[in-house]
Sequence to fold (638 residues):
Amino acid sequence: MNTPKSTLTPTKPAAPASGIIASWVNFWFAPVDPVGLHALRVLAGLLFLFWLLPLAGQQQALFGLDGLFDAKAYVESSRLPDLPPHLFGWSATYLSANPVVLGVIFWVSIAAVVLFTLGVATRFTGVLTWVAVVSYTANPAISYDADPLLLMLAFYLMIGYLLLGQWGAGRSLLTRLLGPRETWLFHRPATGAAFGSGESVGANLALRLFQVHFAIAMVASGLHKLQVKEWWNGLAPWFYLNTPFGTTAERVQAYRPSPESYLTLFTLAAYLVLAWQFAFPAFAWRRGAWRAVLLGGAAVGWLACAFWVSLPLFGPILVVSCLGFLSAGEWRWLQSFVAEFPGVRSVLRRLSRVPDGSVLAGPKSGAVARAAAVSVGQR
Amino acid sequence: MPRAPSLSPGALPRWLLAAGSAAIVFHLAAIVIPILDMPSGPWITDQGLRPADAPEFVHAAAGLSTLHGKYLRVAHGFHFVTNRPADIPEIQLEVLLRNDKGEVFETLRFPDPNANPWVRHRQEVLVSALALDLPVARPTSEVVPPPGQESKVWIWAVRGENFDNEPPPGPPPDRKVPLEFREIQQHRVPRTRDVVRPADWSQIVARSCARYLCRTYGAKSAEIIRHRRDPIPPAVLYARETPPQAFDELIASFGEMSQ
Fold:
């Protein structure tokens, strides 16, 4: 659902819509510049690689039916009552227990993610990427809390690229099956056109679905925390920081001079986390200074997960997911801003052989950004 | 390339907007249902702390999210395990691999300290499955079944504990004494101390790991020894000295398992 158009002329603002139905239609079905979808694809693709590549060589142990959780274990555990059904799904790795086949499946998955990240045949590689993410999060014995968020990212990106560019005439069958060529990361647009500039209802729909689902996840997880005493008394961070095997008597001793100060910090941090999660839907779609709350919170979460909490994937997912709330106008602005850094512009120009002033900076790209902002601002 | 005119929201036909809206509503329902269809709590009840069931109307509608949960894999309760940091003991495994002669020829550790952090993290998740212990009901009456009809239970027993005679009224097991996984007659379950056993899920994962390691290393059997430490309570900050038992490990062997 992508309608190519010249983006050098700012989109004429539509008449302001009013009423619940109009708001609903605008929220879900307004066509937008798909730059947000493309940016999310690149970030999510890097995240998937960041997650999968270090597991190379462990395919059989971690994912195979002859691995640490084998076929017999699946059969035995399927008889257990009260286990959540999502533990038992499907996976491409169930096709064979042969290590060679598992290796082939793994590296084909990596190749699909790389191609998807680069924007090659995104309609097809998007589906393969989703299949890969489902497959490598299917083992119930090694699945952990960040996995559902990975699945969300992969699923909505797949939906976005399945829909992108399907609406309207003039598309070849190959384009309809594999996806538009414009999604290629280093695509050289025609002079005067911007990368990914055709507006798309599909891109908006996929991003909106992702945003709403992620906001629901944040609030649901926050509500669950309220069933836990350590979040009410604010001591949860203490437990994340002082893991049983990672804590020594000396480390505890180091807190002794001023335990009240530390506990004040821990409890404050716990309540800030709760406040951020509960207020998430209230600020996630707001512009301006609220972006600092959204992205600053995500960045702090990443730092906390990287240095103190044993949740290595959670932080990057949080940041990437929060970036998924940026509007097309904000992405265009960010694109121009980054391109101003010394060296970046020349590197980007060399990579994409983009003519001066067409995409990344200059008056024309300013028009692109304004056009996107106007388009998005209609919502 | 010829450019098509801009598509405004109004350009989408009404039937498509209606169908799309219906699909969105269904999708949102399918992703919200599993969030609500989760037990909550535990809450204080007449029978002690117990979880409360999910609302019945949500439970009745659970079928709506089958497609999203089982096949699309996007429906999740978001009741993250890590939201309960004080309830998660940390586990490390020591695996003794034995050959045909019963000799230990390899000792493995999980999480593997030499693995990269990402693999090690997944191994941590795997071994955490072996953490959960469940209470074993103590017999409340003197029922001795006829020979051959004894009902048996598996428990964590203190190494060397004798269950052939009347249950000894001994003290609770010292955390430093290794436990072993043993099958005993139900009426021999000690009544004077809490008795626990590994959860069924833990046993399944332990057996599966043992099978894999036997296959991989060509071992006759694998003995999985669980080292467990409970979370350290913040109350230790206020003690004059850190109580040494705060760092005690509970060591328990799942026994020798083969392929």
Remarks:
- Chain A is about 60% helix and 0% strand.
- Residues 18-214 of chain A form one domain.
